[in-house]
Amino acid sequence: MTWQQRIDAALDARRAADALRVRTTVENGAGRFLTRDQRRYCNFSSNDYLGLSQHPAIIRAWQQGAEQYGVGSGGSGHVSGYTTAHQALEEHLADWLGYPRALLFISGFAANQALIAALTDKTDRIVADRLSHASLLEAASHSPAQLRRFAHNDVAQLASLLDKPCDGQQLVVTEGIFSMDGDSAPLADIHAAAQRHGSWLLVDDAHGIGVTGPEGRGSAASQSVKPELLVVTFGKGVGVSGAAVLCSDSVANYLLQFARHLIYSTSMPPAQAMALRAAFDLIRSDVGEARRQRLAAHIHQFRAGVRDLPFELTASRSAIQPLIVGENDRALHLAQTLREQGIWVTAIRPPTVPTGTARLRLTLTAAHEASDITALLEALHGASE
Could you confirm whether 236 is annotated as catalytic? Predict the structure, then answer.
């Protein structure tokens, strides 16, 4: 089979399974409303959970950073791309989240890949939740370490896998809030199991930081847990983009030597670092607390309103509220029906989720009004009749 034949066969298989991914061009899409082809939709597909991407203070901070530093960093942080703006943000994050060090990365995907690639050896074992993000599982499968996966949030099976002999070290991997189901990991129990076996815990809290816990410090803080390695990303509740790894001094120094994503990638623009600092100031303030409470009210309203629908609702108490429909074509049809009524939702299908669990991945944000939730519920009830 030639290169072209292989590519064509893979695309044909995706089309036949109603699983072909297609990008959609929109005029704007991060806020309460999304515009496409001059039509406005109420947006229930944004990860901007607190609605901070449109906040004037964050926009001004980015503009001021661009005026001071320009629009790019000019290089890797190991060459000339590590500025006072980057240093200030790292120090702020470390102090706020209670770790000796924080290291900035250009994305959460890069941070997870860098951590696992740099830390693990062929004698080691990675024990990961089966529903961990693709960045974690891909990095683990490509690493020299042995990968074992435990059933989702099953601490007993995790402990059983950790009990098995291992010549090297063991790294437990999970998320704070899972991106497709929206439910939370029992981090206290998972961390206790890891500690009993002398293992480290890596938590990716992409969907928890800013939204959960005291001052929005995330899933680990909400459960009074301090994992050895914490990854926080900035493209969801923080409203910007990028990521950071929170860790000890020695791990930070080690990553600066061996994390190839840090060494060979251009660092984020300093203006972005300044915008992020402004975002975290808001998250920690009364503004952030008010937005978290507003989001919680929307979640309660939505969950109360979908109980009688013929869809499976997950155990999520987060901004991610999936409705599991089942078959791919049914999920696509439901998403299209809602769009025809001015409601923008996205159908998520295999291989992103397991076969037979295609779903609408609905995300609620503090930017929504209660009337938006009501309109969504009315449309869902109408489409299910």
Answer: yes
